[in-house]
Amino acid sequence: MIKLEHIFKWYPIGGTKSFVLKDINLEIEEGDFVSIMGPSGSGKSTLLNTLGTLDEPNEGNYYFMGEDVLRMKPKNRNRLFQSHMGYVFQSYHLIDELTVYENIETPLIYKKITSAERKSIVGDLLDRFHIVGKKDLFPSQLSGGQQQVVGIARALAGSPTLLLADEPTGNLNSKQGEEIMELFRELNQNGVTIIQVTHSEKNAEYGTKILEMLDGQLRE
Question: Which pLDDT score, from 0 to 100, does residue 211 have?
């Protein structure tokens, strides 16, 4: 499903290159559940953003479902993302001007799903995550944990084949966190490929494969 070859990412600082990713080579099969661990600043989120086409490396090749992602036109890259990927952001990235309902509905609008279908899908997600009573609230009216839950619901709305999650339970209490990880396990058992970045060893163990990052390099 995913193949990264010799991926490098750097930023120029004072005439030298400050590397964030160094020679990343990675293969992920359909149906994998991969946990990426490592200290802050090790490059975990940058790697996840690269996989989610939100960040572009300076060097290397990225193949997704046989497509050469980095040679695609931006429009086609966006279409690929919207068709196959769901992304749970550490900092939520909810749209402030939209209600909880509208935030969850957003990926479905891009998929040109009918209004009746959208209503059904969003209704199911509101119910599943126990946030029916919050549907008309705006992100600023929610706690951090509630915003995280809405972000997860939005990521799942488009039935992604690949779910990317950056510290998915970072702002949740332990009970909520466990429920989310159990949901991820269930999704994975139903065929969704999951790549999560986490500091939690307990969460990492839900994965079928654990990778460690240190100083921009990856090891199993």
Answer: 97
